[in-house]
Each structure stands twice: as C-alpha cells, then as structure tokens.
C-alpha cells in the first residue's frame, strides 16, 4: 500500500459526459501528479501540483483540468469524454518541491467511455 | 528533451533463469534521477529503486540488481533466479534536475514461465 488513495477505482460513462477523479496523497506529501496510461500511449504525464499551485504540465488535453485543494487532495476533471479517453488514470504524490523526489502511485482509476 | 527507451517490449523466460531488462535514457541535464517501477497484473505501480546521476554504484537488493552506466546512458535491471511472481510490466523512468516530473519508458512485459 503506497498510501495514495484514488477514487473511484472503476468508472463507466458515456461519450460526452464529465467525470471527476479524486486523489488523496500520502500523509505529508505536498506534490500531486496525474498520469494517464493507455495501451497505445503508455504512461503519459498530465500535470503536477505542489502545495496547491500548478508546477508542471504535460500532455493534458484542454478538456481535462485538475486542481489541488488546501487539504492537498486533488481532483482531475475530464469533460466531453471520447472513446479514446478510456484509460487507467494514476495519481501519485511526493514529498516536496526539490527535484528527484520518488513519486508513489495510487492504485489507479479505470475509466471506460462507451 | 528527456527520453527513456526500453527496447525490449516483451520477454519470456523460464523460472529460475536470470533476466536483464534494458533501459537507455537521454537527457541534457547533468543532474538527473533514474527509477524503476513494477506493474503487476493487478495494475498498481510499485516503486523499486531510485538512483541519482552522481551515484554510479551498482545496487543489489535480494534477487534484484541494477547496473547504472553513465558512459552508455544505461540503467539496466537484472532479476536473478526469476520467480513466477516477478511476472509484470517493468518501467524505467527519468526525472531531470530542473523539475520532478518523471517520464516513463514504454515498459517491458516480463513473463516468467513455470
């Protein structure tokens, strides 16, 4: 158990809908990361937050947005969903701002868009 | 730009054989960090090891060992006396010194046959 909690574990929704994935980082961790894992794209970095502020952005679509709240939990919002958004979405956390932190992953949220 | 290449897409070995997973990385930074993660069939991503660019010492942890060679930009992972439970997808990853987002290779799917 990494200590990172993600909900829901599984989600099935229709095209065009919007979903929210939730993540609670490990106790004491200030950074939260979101990754998308699909069969064709592998593990793609989406976005990172540090203590409530966006720190780094990767291949995140404009239809996707994220935020980190004062209690450090984070949400990833996916809207206007398409079939190609079906993937395993990981949240991860690390201790802080300095580079080279080990990041610990949650168990992931399986999203299926039908 | 940072890049991680895992040329071996899939490997199958018979139990108790040794197996080496290759990882080659690219970065322009002199300070960087390398990681290996394991993804068993259940889907979670499990951290195995972190190595910084200033520490070229090889590491052994039980049946696992890692060979870091800056001269060839490689960070290979060897499992000695493999077991069926080692069957998983293994990811090599890189974080540069300027931030701490981690970029992953495509992964190597390892099958240990009984």
Features:
heterodimer, A: 114 residues, mainly beta, 7-stranded mixed β-sheet, 4-stranded antiparallel β-sheet, 11 strands, 0% helix, globular, B: 114 residues, 6-stranded mixed β-sheet, 12 strands
Layout of secondary structure:
The complex is a heterodimer of chains A (114) and B (114).
Chain A: E1 5-7, E2 10-13, E3 19-24, E4 31-38, E5 42-50, E6 53-57, E7 64-68, E8 74-78, E9 87-94, E10 104-105, E11 109-113
Parallel strand pairs in A: 2-11
Antiparallel strand pairs in A: 1-3, 3-8, 4-5, 4-9, 5-6, 7-8, 9-10, 9-11
Chain B: E1 3-5, E2 10-14, E3 19-21, E4 24-26, E5 32-39, E6 46-52, E7 59-61, E8 64-69, E9 74-79, E10 88-96, E11 103-104, E12 108-113
Parallel strand pairs in B: 2-12
Antiparallel strand pairs in B: 1-4, 3-9, 5-6, 5-10, 7-8, 8-9, 10-11, 10-12
Walk me through what this model shows.
Chain A is mainly β and 114 residues long. In chain A, 0% of the residues lie in helices and 53% in strands. Chain A is built from no helices and 11 strands. Chain A has strands at 5-7, 10-13, 19-24, 31-38, 42-50, 53-57, 64-68, 74-78, 87-94, 104-105, 109-113. Chain B is 0% helix and 54% strand. Chain B is built from no helices and 12 strands. In chain B, strands 2, 5, 6, 10, 11 and 12 form a 6-stranded mixed β-sheet that branches. In chain B, strands 3-9-8-7 form a 4-stranded antiparallel β-sheet, with no helix packed on it. Chain B has a two-stranded antiparallel sheet with strand order 1-4. The relative contact order of chain B is 0.35.
């Amino acid at each position: 158990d990494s200590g990172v909690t993600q909900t829901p574990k599984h989600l099935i929704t229709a095209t065009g809908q919007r979903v929210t994935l939730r993540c609670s980082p490990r106790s004491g961790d200030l950074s939260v990361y979101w990754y998308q894992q699909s069969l064709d794209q592998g593990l793609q970095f989406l976005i990172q937050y540090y203590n409530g502020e966006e720190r780094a952005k990767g291949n995140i679509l404009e239809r996707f947005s994220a935020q980190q709240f004062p209690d450090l939990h984070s949400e990833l919002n996916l809207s206007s969903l398409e079939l190609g958004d079906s993937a395993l979405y990981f949240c991860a956390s690390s201790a802080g701002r300095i580079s080279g932190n080990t990041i610990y992953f949650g168990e992931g949220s399986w999203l299926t868009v039908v | 730009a940072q890049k991680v290449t895992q040329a071996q897409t899939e490997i199958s070995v018979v139990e108790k054989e040794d197996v080496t997973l290759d990882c080659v990385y690219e970065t322009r930074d002199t300070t960087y960090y390398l990681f290996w993660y394991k993804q068993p069939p259940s889907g979670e991503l499990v951290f195995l090891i972190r190595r910084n660019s200033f520490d070229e010492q090889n590491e052994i942890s039980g049946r696992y060992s890692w060979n870091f060679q800056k001269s060839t930009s490689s960070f290979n992972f060897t499992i000695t006396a493999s077991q069926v439970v080692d069957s998983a997808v293994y990811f090599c990853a890189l974080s540069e010194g300027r931030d701490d987002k981690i970029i992953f290779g495509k992964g190597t799917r390892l099958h240990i046959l009984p």
